[in-house]
Amino acid sequence: MENFYTYIIFSEVFDKYYKGFSTNPKQRLIQHNLGESKFTSNFGPWKLVHVEIYNSKKDALIREKKLKKYSKAQIIQLSNSQLNKINELG
Question: Domains of the chain (ranges plus CATH)?
Answer without folding.
Answer: 4-88 (3.40.1440.10)
